[in-house]
Amino acid sequence: MWTGRGVVIGFACLAGLTVVGFTWLAEHALAQFFLFQKALWWGPLFWTPLSTAAIVWLTLRFAPGAAGSGIPQVMAALDPQAVGAARRLYVSVRLTLAKVLLTSWGLLAGLSLGREGPSVQVAAGVMHHARRWMPKRADVSDHSLLVAGGAAGIAAAFNTPLGGVMFAIEELSKGREQRSNSLILVAIVMGGLMGVSVYGNANYFGVIRIENFGAALLLPALLLALCCGLAGGLFSRLLIASLSGASTDWFSRMRRNSPVLFAAGCGLAIAILGVVSHGETFGSGYSHNRAMLENTDNTSPLYVVLKFLATWISTWAGVPAGIFAPSLAIGGALGNDVAQLLSYANAPTLIALGMAGFLAAVTQAPLTAFIIVMEMVDGHALVLSLMASTMVAAGVSRLISAPLYASLADLQLRRIQPSHAHQHGTAA
């Protein structure tokens, strides 16, 4: 029993350190892109389409399971249909390596994507490998290892161990009875602590200053939560529709028949949006959000729309890409816009509420969104406001769209269903 526990905790630490290394590589890749873009403003017009096409070709050729966020893959791996070899379609050490390299290349290309969602698949792949080293009688299931790994990925990526625990409860273990709960929670926290040990106990966006907190916040916060719910629900619905491949429009046919050429077109569109926005829409949006919170950035009123489009097109292209960081950027900008519209004195408060609200609306995981943002901005004074914002935004989103990750996980499961259908056909 103790050997099994030691293996789980050891691999949890390894998963967390892998995400730390992924974070370092991704951030340096994005920094290199911005140096290139600053030196040659027109450079992305050829570099971004070329890179996007190359990433999609490599993904389709060598690691189709690495495409997209990574969270739907882990959810699909947790499904009862995914057993044995089928599970390796979604999580493996090979996919972990591919995810790290291809997502980092996406940031080097200036695509509007995040590394946090991919970190879930990265850490789950490492954690799932632990089963090879477990004693035969160890009472830890593959399901538990995947939950622990995926949640440890979120914890390490955001430097928010509590957020990882809530992500495991709210997203990865829905409707399932967990065994070895205490061990799994320890593994999640250990994965998160690897980020803390390397980067220190620093907040993702620093500490925000909260002023004039009171009844004056009620109207702006309510308007913002509704806007986040509507925009996040629309974003989620767009992603489901465009990634399902069920449409018969020209773009969907092009994506099915010529995915690499379609990716190049998406890369060109992203480059044009980046040039039009003077580089603001390139990358994850992390530095842009931090600048807004520190009152050092005057966001263009068009930023929300342009970043929305850039993130949607980046995901639609088919590259390994997460949407957490861009969602935080879009929500933060929405909060900033509402603060300017209503002349609210303390914009950082609404920026934080917007980050949580839009993330909750996109993922329909309000508790995870609230805890992640609270830990990221050290916003303990905003606990009730963050909770209310995420609940309202997620509620509005549910009226517009089906749950994003659950829908995309169902699409992932189609990859193993044709083999079942073939078997039934042969038997008939």
3D architecture notes:
The chain has 428 residues and is mainly α. The chain folds into 2 domains: 2-199, Orthogonal Bundle (Clc chloride channel), CATH 1.10.3080.10; 215-413, Clc chloride channel. It has helices at 2-39, 44-62, 71-77, 93-108, 116-128, 142-158, 161-172, 181-199, 218-244, 250-257, 259-276, 286-293, 303-316, 324-341, 347-363, 366-376, 383-400, 404-413, 417-427. Helix 1 packs across helix 6 (142-158) and helix 9 (218-244) packs parallel to helix 18 (404-413). It is globular, with a radius of gyration of 21 Å.
Q: In terms of per-residue confidence, which ranges show pLDDT below 50 for 5 or more consecutive residues? A: 175-180, 419-428
User: Roughly how many Å apart are the termini?
Assistant: 46 Å
Instruction: Please identify the oligomeric state.
Output: single chain
CATH superfamily of the largest domain: Clc chloride channel
How many structural units, i.e. domains?
Answer: 2
Q: Which structural category do the helix and sheet elements fall into?
A: mainly alpha
Mean pLDDT, to the nearest integer, reads 87
What is the CATH class designation of the largest domain? Mainly Alpha
Tally of individual helices: 19
Give helix % range. over 70%
From the 3D structure, determine the CATH topology of the largest domain. Clc chloride channel
Order of helices and strands: HHHHHHHHHHHHHHHHHHH
The profile of the biggest β sheet is:
none
How many E-type strands?
0
Features:
428 residues, mainly alpha, Clc chloride channel, 19 helices, 70% helix, globular
